[in-house]
Structure formats: C-alpha cells, structure tokens
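debug: dumping io for the single-chain case to check the tokenizer round-trip. Nothing else runs in this session.
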Amino acid sequence: MQLFSSPMRMPRLLYGYYERRLVRALDRSRIPNHIGVMVDGNRRWAKQFNAPTRDGHQAGADKILEFLGWCQELGIKVVTLYMLSTDNMSRSSEELDELMGIIANTMDLLDADADISVHAMGAPELLPDYLADRLSSLTARVPAKERIHVNMAIGYGGRREIVDAVKELLHDAEAAGRSMPEVADSLDVDDISKYLYTRGQPDPDLVIRTSGEQRLSGFLMWQSAYSEFYFCEALWPAFRRIDFLRALRDYAGRSRRFGA
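debug: decoded output
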C-alpha cells in the first residue's frame, strides 16, 4: 500500500501536524498585544537563488501580507513593520526606485483590506512625492471595524524619532509661553513618549528580527526598553508560520520584569 504519493508529502504533513500542535499549545492569554518586526534578509534571500534584488524585495512584501494574516488570526492588535530605514536611503537609486514601487503596491493591497488601519512612521520628506502622498492617503482612511493596526516605518530612524519628539515638545512649550529652564526642570519620560511617532499606542511586547542578525539597528529604541526580543535565523521571505508560532511560544514562556 502506497501511503505517500510524493517524497515531499511527508515533510509537509509533518510540518502541518507540528504547526497545529504549536497553535493548540499557545497560551492565548499570553499573546503579545503589539509586535515589532524587523523584516530583514530580502537581498540575501534573492542572492542565494541568483535572482535580482527586486525579487527579494517583492518576496518580502508578499510575506508582510501573509504575516499580517497570521496576526489577525491570533488576535494581535498592533504590528510595527521596519520596512525602510534612513540608512537604507543611501542604496543605489535603481534599487530604491524598485523598492519604493513595491512598497506602494503593498500599500494598495493593505488599502483593499477594510479591517486594517495604517499609521506612518518616519520622515515623509525623504520619500518620493508619489509614495509620501500614497502613504498619507492610506493613513487617513479609518476602517469601520479595525481588526489590526499597522505601523509602517518607512524612512525611519530611531535616533531621528527621539530628536523629532524633543523638537516638537520644545516648540509646543515655547508656544505655550513656558521658559526653557521650566521645561527642563519638569521634563520626564512620559513627556517624551507623548511626542513619539507611536504616541497613544502601547509599547511593543515582542520585537522579532529575521536573518540571524542580533541588533536593533535603531528600531523603536525608546519604545522597546522593556520589550522581549526574538532573533530568527530565517531570512524574511522564508519566514514561516511555524517560525512565528515558535516566537510566540518563546515569548509566552518568559517572565517579564519591566526593569524590576
């Protein structure tokens, strides 16, 4: 009797069984509310297949949409995606043009999902006008029933975010007639938080970085002070639902101390 029609069917069945076990074992009371993701490894993924860099960025964009579907299934409310840093703006104009086009297409697909709300994080003046306008239009849309809130970090830098927050705080203080010594004497952590790009949102519970790199690279430097971190060897386009479920299992098993 032939049980498997293909030698590839056994691994797929085993992966499916393992994935279902991971889902059943998840403690739903310990699912993170806000996840930050550093979508790293697109170029290396393309290189290993001798494919154009564009193919890697497109595969990464496709993975973002798949990943957001996983998050919605599990009830995760907020996702912050590190898509393009200020440092990335120094790449070749050809690669940047291709990447910007892929990001714009991804925005169109997000716009098609009525349950997703989008918030922009970064410096829009660094982006081409068409992309900045598309991002502004997308963030202005208010879903009738929000299932997930997505922060898109495009042209983003963590140090710049903190500098921008302090600048805005000082300008508002001056407009209110407060002196600089008065501002300095009363300044506290909450004052800075009120001016971050993520103002009004919860800090990330879990930050995931793919591609095996183990550093923040300026991502949510202020907000991630008490986040849990999970570093995965998989390149972003190859990141599987099993990898995500393992990250959630690892997070659920940790004892969060929040600096205590």
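debug: round-trip ok. Residues 4 and 200 are 53 Å apart (CA to CA).
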